[in-house]
Amino acid sequence: MYARAEEDLLFAYDNLEGYQRNDKHKLDKNVVAGILARLYLQKEEWKEAGDFAAKAQEKLVCMGQSEYLEGFNDRTNNEWIWGHGQSPDQDVASYSFHFRDVSSSSSYYYSFMADPYFIEYFDENDIRYQLFEWDTKRFKGGLMYKKFKFHSNLTGDIVLMRKAEMVLIEAEAYAERDLLPDAIRKLNELREARGAYTPDLSTLSKEELVEVILLERRKELFGEGFALSDIKRRQKAVERKSYPETTLEINEVEIKVQGHTVTRLPNSTDFTPNNPYYIFAIPAVESTNNPNL
Fold first, then answer.
1. Is 171 exposed, middle or buried (0-12, 13-18, 19+ CB in 10 A)?
2. C-alpha distances in angstroms, 97 versus 12, 69, 107, 157?
3. How far is CA 99 from the centre of its chain?
4. Are 130 and 145 in contact (CB under 8 A)?
5. How far apart are CA 238 and CA 272, in angstroms?
6. How far apart are CA 57 and CA 267, in angstroms?
7. Per-10-residue mean pLDDT for the chain, 293 residues long?
């Protein structure tokens, strides 16, 4: 399967030379390079992953810090490599994505709150830290992470690929090739763009640095669909910790912090690496309509 995907993508990459798209929902050479980087990341072919990640983001820059607070809803953002546009008459994808918007006046689905432990990974100078806010009205005690927001017309473009993801693929690929200074340089490229603290990482082992990069992927790519695939490809277990009973006073409103209520799998066992529950089921309609079954 991987060989066929690689063959198709390399063919597309070569044959898209010179093609200029007129909208970011279309695939051009940069998008295909990004998909190849994801493929090689999954296959643990580190040099190819890093090389294509670099090609995917050619001439792109990380978004400004103020842009990071604007709602991740505009495909014209300079950092977006690939995005799905939405309009009032074509907005089905917006509604599918709607549950990620937990803070705007248009939102109504509040279950996509952040784990209260998550905020501890950010320093207060990091622009991403400003996205956190305790909910005192609708889901009292939930920790909102105000990354995704609707426009006033109830649409929002869908992000599919960004430069930041490619920078982190480069960092991980360098680390796995024991090119640790290069990995740290790429990691700090992203952290500096976000205004985050850049501690000295030069004493870390390869394994320790990889863990730092994987954590940065969690922080940067929150809500964009990568956490479960990272857990699976790295043979890790999902982490769910209950939060100790805590009461806070926010803007003169007393709240009880809402953490995870489910900390074990549906069969009442602990989360473990490579668990079958992490695998998406094949839709029943696919089996029903497949004459070969």
1. buried
2. 29, 18, 11, 9
3. 15
4. no
5. 7
6. 43
7. 97 96 96 98 98 96 96 95 92 78 82 93 98 94 94 91 98 98 98 98 98 98 95 96 96 95 94 93 89 84
